[in-house]
Amino acid sequence: MMAKKRVATDNAADAKMELANRLFFRLYQCANMLHKTGTRAVEAEGLTTQQWAVLGALSRPTVANGMSVGDLARYLMVSLQNLTGLIGRMERDGHVAVVPDERDRRSRLVTMTKSGRHVWEVLAQPKIRAYYGEVLGDFSINDVTHTLHYLLKILDNMKRLDDGAAGETAATDLE
To answer: Could you read off the pLDDT of 12-40 as tens digits, one per residue?
Structure first.
């Protein structure tokens, strides 16, 4: 009887791993397609999906006075190195400005410029909404809610893994 339970458990674990492989591969494909089709949706405004994400992050009322580069990198979950290049291009294009933080002169704040706000609110938003409508057109509100719930659950678990890895690195650095 124990052998049958172990086989059933092994089969369930194998099935879960196969499904996990398919799930993560689909997430990978979705991320790539988001970049490709999302960029196409806003390219007439001179934006990429990464720039769209930066403008979206900076458009929130809670950061009306800007965000530090580090906080923005953490919020977007990107490396400082990748964000620095992206912000440089966006600054060159007039979408954002980088200014010293008055509270901490060592820190720099990224703010959306008037031109960037126009691009975001007037030019990009209608296209982004149309893009969402096309991609999620056959999703019910319940479908979107459930999808968001499970993606947030996966993201929380990934953050916990990342935090654990960062803790291990910090502990190793202390030795």
So the answer is: 899 999 999 999 999 999 999 999 999 99
